[in-house]
Amino acid sequence: MRQELKTHVEQIHSDFTIVDAHFDMLGDVLKKRRMGYTKVIERDFIPDFISGGVNIVVASLFVENQYVPEMAMRNALDQISALYEEIEESPDKIIICKTYQDILTAIKNKQLGVILSFEGAEPIGNDLKLLRIFYELGVRILGLVWSRRNYAGDGCHFQQVEEGQKGGLTDFGVKLVREAEKLGMFIDVSHLNDEGFWDVMKIAKKPVIASHSNSRSIVNHPRNLTDEQIKAVAKHGGVIGMNAYSDFVSEETLTKNAEGLVKHVLHIVDLVGIKHIGLGFDFCDLFTSSNPNFLPDKKEKKSFDVIKGHKNIKKFTERLIIHGFKDEEIKLILGGNFLEIYKQSLTKIN
Ligand SMILES: [Zn+2]
Question: What are the tens digits of pLDDT across the range 57-92?
Fold first, then answer.
């Protein structure tokens, strides 16, 4: 039985397209390139993508607090530049996906397809015109905020903080949603506060995704979505990426694992069906050595990922099989649902 299950998992990972809708790879790539390393994605990331069967990765342009606000644009541009340099060095292994056709090409040629997204609109400050520049460079998904305030809106905090009155989207934030959709981008609500979330739902015409958020009914954390929010994302045809960050997966140490994450899948399927779940693991253990944001206690190297990187996502697939999900359903969760979003939403609208 054990061997049968293993073979089944292997077959799924070699046959199905796997999409990770949120990975902060480029900050790390940039830091290593500044140290003089080249082919960082090929050397440090692609082996794990290959062993996990990952085809498409959304590389988020996360800008650390230390660069905000003045250096945010420059840092984002440096990250994009690093990606272009990496592609030049590994042209047969990596492509940037600006269209759905590019995504299909990546899958067909067994290349790593990278889609760029904003994780917070800080790089454009309050200048709507800059959005087009980033679009031209390949950014296709707009996460309006990270867990902090910017010109577009308010992020949700990671823990309770003393704060004044909360806001939803600003005037600029509303314009940004409209302009992004018009250009051919779509909106990601992960990290947005609840007020901003409901504003986006009123304004957006395209499907809205939550690239890396779980269920708040299971873990009561502001980074997770309430049942009403999950229903709203589904109603708008969106997809929610399951996040492997331990604090969002479970409050109990024993279930900070793949099984704990599947609990969120089961809950969301119960609420809205199978078509609205994807993967947005947000793996970050890899970056703890280089990113001070991931080191609340710098003396101790803490583990945050309940699944240990892309090479281990088969453990998640195994749990899905054990819970009785059929191949066709697993195909949707691992990538099919996000592919459908890319097919529908990487288009310009009026
Ligand atoms: Zn995030």
Answer: 999 999 999 999 999 999 999 999 999 999 999 999
User: How many angstroms separate the CA atoms of 337 and 339, rounded?
Assistant: 5
pTM for this model (two decimals): 0.95
User: CA 312, CA 48: separation in Å to the nearest integer?
Assistant: 8
Place of tokens 């992004």: 180
Query: What pLDDT is recorded for position 330?
Result: 98
Model confidence at 224, pLDDT cuts 50, 70, 90, reads very high
Q: 5 CA distance to ligand 1 centroid (A)?
A: 32
Q: How far is the CA of 53 from the centre of ligand 1 (A)?
A: 23
Using the mean position of ligand 1's atoms as its centre, give its distance from the Cα of residue 231 in Å. 21
Write the pLDDT tens digit of every residue in 291-301: 555 555 555 56
| Cα(104) to centroid(ligand 1), Å | 26
Counting Cβ atoms within 10 Å, is residue 324 exposed (0-12), middle (13-18) or buried (19+)?
exposed
CA of 222 to the centre of ligand 1 (A): 12
- Cα first-last separation, the chain: 54
CA 110 / ligand 1 centre spacing (Å) = 27
CA of 341 to the centre of ligand 1 (A): 20
Looking only at the bridges linking them, the beta strands covering 139-143 and 186-188 are parallel
CA distance 261 to 275: 17
Residue 237 sits at the vertex; the CA angle it makes with 233 and 241, to the nearest 5 degrees, is 60
Q: How far is the CA of 223 from the centre of ligand 1 (A)?
A: 9
Give percent above pLDDT 70 in the chain: 96
Q: Cα(119) to centroid of ligand 1, in Å?
A: 7
